[in-house]
C-alpha cells in the first residue's frame, strides 16, 4: 500500500500515517511487473522538449525555444502528479525552483552547459535553505546556510534544483526506505529502487528529472541505477569534491550522477568535476576488456539473467572492435576489508549526530559493531594496499573490466528499517556484491542498462570499471554500447 503524501511548497513532504502494521509500513501489496521483455526498445523522440534529455533542454533554453521557467513548470507539474507512485522525493522545491528559474533567465545563458536543466539532489548533501536529514530523525532539522560544492557547480552551470531525493538512514543501506516513505522501483513498484541513491534513480527512471545527483560509498549510485534501468557513474577519488560526513567514508564515498543517457551523465559529470573534456563521448580507441562474471561472494549464486547482462555488454563491445577476454578479478580478501570499513565509517559519522537516541534499531546495531571494529583496530591501510596492488597488476593486461552490476533482482520494496541488522546485510550482500570493490580502492565505475529481467520485470545491467583516471574511457565506451544496444529511457 502506498503512503498518501501531500506536497507542501518548499518544504519537506508531509506524510499521513500509513494504514499498516509497524513492520510493513507502506509496502506495496504485490508484485506487478511492467514490460518484462529481455531487451528494451529505444524510445521514440520526445515531442515535448521540456521533458527530453538534459542536453536537449539546455540547448533549447540557450537558443530561446524554451525558457527555464517553462521547463520548471513542466517538471514540477509532473513531479507533483507522479512522485507518489515511487516516493522518489523527500522535498519538493516548487516555489524556490520557480524563483531560481526566473533568476536564471537574467543570466548569460550562452555560457551555461546545463541552462535550465531540472536536477534532483540526494538528501544527504547541503542545499542552501533546505535541511540535510540523510534519511534520519537523528540529524539536525534546521536548514543549512550554504550549498555543497557540487550543488554550487551545478547551479553555476545553469541547473535548477527542483527537489531532494529520498535516502535511507545515513546512506548506510542498500534499499531506500524511511519511516515516512518506501521508495519503489518505477518498473515494478513492488520491488526496491535500491540504495542508497534509490530516490535519485527512481526520479530519473520515472521521467521526473533527466539527471539526478547521487553519491556512492559501496555502490550507492550503481546499485539503484541498475535496479531502475538508468545510467549511473561513480568517478574515481579526487575527481569530484566529496566532502560528505566526517571524512567521506574514509575516502570510499564519491559524488556522481544518474541520467537517462550517457551523454547527459557525461555532461553533468563534466560540470561536477570542472572538466569539460568529460562531456566528449566519441567512441574510444580499441580497448582491452576483461569479462569477469564470477561473484566475489561465492556463497551467493549469480542470477543467469544478470550474468547474461555482462556477457551482452561484452559481446556488443567485441562487435565494436574491442578485444574482449573472459577473466577473473583478483578479489582475494577484499570483501572482508570492505565490510569492516563499512562498519567503522558509520560509527565515525554517527559520533557527530545531535540526536543519536532517534536512530533506527538496525543502525544502532550497526554503529555498535562499528565501535567494536574501531576498538580492535581491525581497519588498517595495508589491507587496501594489498588489494590495490593485485588490481594494478590485473590492469596491466586490461583497460576496462565488465561485470554484472548486481547478482539478482532488487529485494521487495518493504519497510527494511523495521527489520534487523543481519536481515538488511544479507539482503544487500545477496544482490549487490559486485560494486563495493571500486569504492575500497577509489577507482571509477559505472552501471549501464542491458535489458529486462523476464521474471521480475525490472532492468538488468552491466558494470564497467577501470583504473584511476579512466572516467573518460568508461564514458566513451558506455556511449558506444548505448548506441549499439539502446534501452528504453523511462517508464513514461
Characterise this structure:
The chain is α+β, with helices and mostly antiparallel strands and 492 residues long. It contains 15 helices and 16 strands. The protein has helices at 54-63, 68-82, 94-104, 149-156, 198-205, 222-228, 248-251, 262-272, 304-319, 334-350, 361-375, 381-394, 421-431, 437-441, 471-484; strands spanning 5-6, 11-12, 14-15, 89-92, 118-122, 160-165, 184-185, 188-192, 211-216, 231-234, 254-259, 288-291, 323-326, 400-404, 445-452, 459-465. Strands 2-4-6-5-9-11-10-15-16-14-12-13 form a 12-stranded mixed beta sheet, with helices on both faces. The relative contact order is 0.15. Residues 1-9 and 14-47 have low confidence and may be disordered.
Principal-axis shape equals globular
Q: How large is the radius of gyration? A: 21 Å
Q: How many extended strands?
A: 16
Low-pLDDT parts are 1-9, 14-47
Give the assembly state of these chains. single chain
| Helix share, percent | 25-40%
What's the average pLDDT?
91
The span between the termini is 22 Å
Number of helices: 15
Q: How much β-strand is present in the residues?
A: 5-15%
Structural class comes to alpha+beta
Largest sheet: 12 strands, mixed
Q: Give the spatial strand order of the biggest sheet.
A: 2-4-6-5-9-11-10-15-16-14-12-13
Give a topology summary.
Elements lengths: L4 E2 L4 E2 L1 E2 L38 H10 L4 H15 L6 E4 L1 H11 L13 E5 L26 H8 L3 E6 L18 E2 L2 E5 L5 H8 L5 E6 L5 H7 L2 E4 L13 H4 L2 E6 L2 H11 L15 E4 L12 H16 L3 E4 L7 H17 L10 H15 L5 H14 L5 E5 L16 H11 L5 H5 L3 E8 L6 E7 L5 H14 L8
Helix pairs in contact: 2-3, 5-6, 8-15, 10-11
Amino acid at each position: 500500500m502506498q503512503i498518501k503524501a501531500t506536497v507542501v511548497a518548499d518544504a519537506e513532504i508531509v506524510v499521513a500515517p500509513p494504514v499498516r502494521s509497524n513492520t510493513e509500513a507502506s509496502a506495496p501489496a504485490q508484485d506487478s511487473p511492467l514490460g518484462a521483455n529481455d531487451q528494451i526498445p529505444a524510445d521514440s523522440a520526445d515531442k515535448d522538449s521540456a521533458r527530453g534529455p538534459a542536453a536537449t533542454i539546455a540547448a533549447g533554453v540557450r537558443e530561446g525555444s524554451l525558457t527555464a521557467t517553462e521547463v520548471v513548470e513542466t517538471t514540477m507539474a509532473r513531479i507533483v502528479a507522479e512522485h507518489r507512485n515511487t516516493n522518489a522525493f523527500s522535498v519538493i522545491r516548487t516555489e524556490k525552483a520557480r524563483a531560481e528559474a526566473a533568476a536564471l533567465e537574467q543570466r548569460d545563458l550562452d555560457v551555461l552547459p546545463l541552462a535550465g536543466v531540472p536536477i534532483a539532489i540526494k538528501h544527504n548533501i547541503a542545499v542552501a535553505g533546505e535541511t540535510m536529514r540523510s534519511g534520519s530523525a537523528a540529524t539536525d532539522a534546521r536548514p543549512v546556510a550554504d550549498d555543497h560544492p557540487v550543488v554550487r557547480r551545478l547551479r553555476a552551470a545553469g541547473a535548477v534544483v527542483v527537489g531532494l531525493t529520498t535516502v535511507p538512514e545515513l546512506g548506510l543501506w542498500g534499499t531506500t526506505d524511511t519511516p515516512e516513505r518506501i521508495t519503489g522501483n518505477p518498473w515494478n513498484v513492488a520491488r526496491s529502487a535500491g540504495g542508497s541513491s534509490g530516490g535519485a534513480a527512481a526520479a530519473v527512471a520515472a521521467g521526473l528529472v533527466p539527471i539526478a545527483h547521487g553519491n556512492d560509498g559501496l555502490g550507492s549510485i550503481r546499485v539503484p541505477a541498475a535496479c531502475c534501468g538508468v545510467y549511473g557513474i561513480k568517478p574515481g577519488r579526487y575527481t569530484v569534491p566529496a566532502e560528505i560526513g566526517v571524512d567521506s567514508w574514509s575516502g570510499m564515498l564519491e559524488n556522481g550522477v544518474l541520467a537517462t543517457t550517457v551523454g547527459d551523465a557525461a555532461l553533468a559529470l563534466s560540470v561536477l568535476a570542472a572538466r569539460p573534456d568529460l562531456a566528449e563521448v566519441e567512441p574510444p580507441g580499441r580497448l582491452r576488456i576483461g569479462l569477469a562474471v564470477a561473484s566475489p561472494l561465492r556463497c551467493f549464486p549469480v542470477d543467469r539473467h544478470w550474468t547474461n547482462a555482462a556477457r551482452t555488454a561484452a559481446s556488443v563491445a567485441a562487435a565494436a572492435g574491442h578485444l574482449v577476454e573472459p577473466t577473473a578479478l583478483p578479489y582475494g580478501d577484499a570483501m572482508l576489508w570492505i565490510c569492516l570499513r563499512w562498519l567503522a565509517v558509520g560509527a565515525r559519522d554517527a559520533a557527530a549526530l545531535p540526536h543519536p537516541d532517534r536512530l533506527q534499531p538496525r543502525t544502532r546495531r550497526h554503529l555498535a559493531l562499528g565501535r567494536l571494529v574501531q576498538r580492535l583496530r581491525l581497519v588498517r591501510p595495508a589491507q587496501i594496499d594489498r588489494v590495490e596492488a593485485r588490481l594494478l597488476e590485473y590492469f596491466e593486461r586490461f583497460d576496462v573490466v565488465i561485470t554484472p552490476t548486481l547478482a539478482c533482482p532488487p529485494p521487495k520494496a518493504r519497510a527494511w528499517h523495521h527489520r534487523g541488522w543481519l536481515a538488511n546485510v544479507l539482503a544487500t550482500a545477496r544482490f549487490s556484491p559486485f560494486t563495493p570493490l571500486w569504492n575500497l580502492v577509489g577507482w571509477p565505475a559505472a552501471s549501464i542498462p542491458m535489458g529486462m529481467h523476464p521474471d521480475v520485470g525490472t532492468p538488468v545491467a552491466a558494470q564497467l570499471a577501470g583504473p584511476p583516471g579512466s572516467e573518460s574511457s568508461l564514458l566513451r565506451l558506455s556511449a558506444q554500447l548505448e548506441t549499439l544496444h539502446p534501452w528504453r529511457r523511462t517508464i513514461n
